[in-house]
Design goal:
This protein is of the alpha/beta class and 145 residues long. Helices cover 45% and strands 17% of the residues. The chain has one domain: Rossmann fold (3-Layer(aba) Sandwich). The chain contains six helices and five strands. A five-stranded parallel sheet has the order 2-1-3-4-5, sandwiched between helices. The longest helix has 22 residues, at 123-144.
Length: 145
């Protein structure tokens, strides 16, 4: 597990950016506060439609995405992201209360970086997972360039 100091000193020279797509305000505020403490720039939105609009002006290093969202669910939005040249390779961590095998399978088929059931959620573990996936993605992009 990474320490907070290690997480702050990821291979990024800039502060990593995170978009949280979560309709539960208490959960999104908790996640946002924790990530801000470890030097992330964090934006929160409550729906896939709001996320799509946010992505026009904000370029996150990663996204935390709930499945159970109003209007369009998170897996449908993830599929949309994977079909987009701009967001195809962005690490997306699914957080949800749904532990159905079909959802887990579908998330990984859509290249979700991780699938986390909220009842099992530790904010420190979430920061560690997000940071690791950002670092892996950044390294892969540099290697392939």
């Amino acid at each position: 597990m990474l320490s907070r100091t290690t997480m702050k000193k990821s291979i990024h020279t800039k502060r990593p950016k995170l978009l949280i797509v979560e309709d539960d305000l208490l959960i999104s505020k908790s996640i946002k506060t924790y990530f801000a403490k470890v030097n992330y720039v964090v934006k929160t939105v409550r729906s896939a439609e709001d996320a799509r609009e946010c992505l026009k002006s904000f370029t996150p290093s990663a996204m935390i995405l709930d499945i159970a969202l109003p209007q369009k669910n998170g897996l449908e939005f993830l599929k949309e992201l994977r079909n987009s040249e701009s967001w195809r390779h962005m690490p997306v961590i699914i957080t949800t209360n749904l532990d159905a095998e079909e959802n887990i399978h579908d998330a990984y088929l859509l290249s979700a970086a991780a699938y986390i059931v909220k009842s099992d959620l530790s904010l420190m573990d979430l920061v560690s997972k997000v940071t690791n996936h950002i670092n892996i993605s950044s390294y892969a992009q540099k290697t392939l360039s």
